[in-house]
């Protein structure tokens, strides 16, 4: 989910981003896909995670929580590499989001409005 920089504006979500339930399903599908396509690389990455976080339970659990998301992102990058229309569509959506959410004049004026509220 992308956050606008200005105070008080509602958070926005990319229209192409799946809802939380679907995101979990996509992550599971990505995990199964990677296990079938490159099982050694997948297991190697998990073993590296376990080895590098050994003795630090907080980091290990956090790594396990993030791992499916990383696998899902990697699969999406592979799909983008193969699909020029998808790359173009995501590029246009990213540019539109940047222009909409990070407008220089609006974001530069936000601190002035906040300081004016504090002074009065």
Structural class per helix/strand content?
A: mainly alpha
Number of H/I helices: 5
Number of domains as seen in the coordinates: 2
Mean pLDDT: 79
| Whole-angstrom Rg | 20 Å
Order of helices and strands: HHHHH
- How would a crystallographer describe the biggest sheet? none
General form: flat
Total strands: the figure is 0
- Helix coverage percent of residues? over 70%
Low-confidence stretches: 1-14
Q: N-to-C terminal Cα separation, in Å?
A: 34 Å
| Beta-strand share of residues | under 5%
Could you characterize what this model shows?
α1 packs across α2 (39-52), α1 (20-37) packs across α3 (57-82) and α2 (39-52) runs antiparallel to α3. The chain starts with 19 loop residues before the first helix and ends with a helix. Helices cover 77% and strands 0% of the residues. The protein has 120 residues and is mainly α. It has five helices and no strands. It has two domains: 18-82, no CATH class; 84-120.
Itemize the secondary structure elements and their pairings.
Layout: H1 20-37, H2 39-52, H3 57-82, H4 84-101, H5 104-119
Quick structural gist:
With 120 residues, the chain is mainly α.
Kindly list the characteristics that best describe this protein.
120 residues; 2 domains; disordered N terminus
């Amino acid at each position: 989910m992308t956050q606008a920089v200005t105070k008080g504006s509602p958070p926005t979500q990319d229209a192409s981003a799946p809802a939380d339930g679907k995101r979990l399903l996509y992550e599971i599908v990505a995990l199964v896909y990677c296990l079938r396509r490159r099982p050694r690389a997948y297991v190697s990455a998990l073993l590296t995670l376990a080895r590098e976080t050994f003795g630090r339970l907080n980091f290990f659990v956090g790594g396990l929580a993030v791992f499916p998301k990383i696998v899902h992102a990697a699969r999406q990058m592979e799909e983008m590499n193969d699909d020029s229309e998808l790359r173009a569509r995501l590029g246009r959506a990213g540019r539109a989001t940047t222009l909409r959410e990070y407008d220089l004049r609006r974001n530069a004026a936000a601190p002035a409005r906040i300081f004016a509220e504090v002074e009065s």
